[in-house]
Amino acid sequence: MQEHIVKSFDAQIDALNRKIEETAKACESQLSSAAQAFEYVDKDLAKSIVKKDDNINRLQREIEDACVRLLALRQPMAADLRYLLSCMKIASELERIGDYAANISKRVTELSETPSKEPSDLILEMIQLCNRMLKNSMDAFFNADAQNAVKVWHKDDEIDRKFARMMTCVRSQMQDEKDLLDNSTQLIFVGRCCERIGDHITNIAEDIYFMVTGRNYMDIFEDQ
């Protein structure tokens, strides 16, 4: 963001950036912990992750309140307006990512045994990829880097491919091993959560692209 004549505005923006960073890091931590809870079927860890989701919800509300105050008091235009609108949307996406990390953890508490290796490995790969995408999207946000946001956006295809492979694997196991039906159902829910997290990160990437360029990224495809 450019510097402003009114220095208090810069201070408020800095505070908002720190809050966005805190929320993103909380989501990254929740995702890493969810991966660990899933891998080792650590139900105590999973329960602690669910409890921590309230913190992300609180941060999201604080970001939204700060943005609304700045919109009302500063009446920003152009890049500043896009920045504040994008912050509100990004905070909402981060809150949903936190929800899905908690949902993964809730499913861990329902697992009756360690999941089968192939679908389990794919789920762990999806969570790890989501975390990298989230970190890269935040780098793009703080550096106002539209091109890196686009790279994050396209990474979602990899998550979709892994999810499709996982679903094929789980469906096959459900047919061959009826006694694993309950666990397989939980795996499907976990995989769907990972896929949705990827979608929310692509939304963040779109928000960043709009913040920097003033254009919606999807409009590029319609123009071609």
Keyphrases for this structure?
single chain; 224 residues; elongated
Give the biggest beta sheet: none
Per DSSP, the total helix count is 7
Contiguous uncertain segments of 5+ residues? none
Helical content, roughly? Answer: over 70%
Secondary-structure element pattern, one letter each: HHHHHHH
Structure class: mainly alpha
- What is the radius of gyration? 19 Å
Percentage of residues in DSSP E strands: under 5%
User: What is the approximate shape?
Assistant: elongated
First and last CA, distance: 30 Å
Tell me, rounded to a whole number, the average pLDDT.
92
Number of strands: 0
Structure summary:
By secondary structure, the chain is mainly alpha-helical.
Helix-strand layout with pairing:
Layout: H1 7-40, H2 43-74, H3 78-108, H4 117-142, H5 146-176, H6 181-213, H7 217-223
Helix pairs in contact: 1-2, 1-3, 1-4, 2-3, 3-6, 4-5, 4-6, 5-6
Question: Can you describe this structure?
Answer:
By secondary structure, the chain is mostly helical. Helices cover 87% and strands 0% of the residues. It is built from seven helices and no strands.
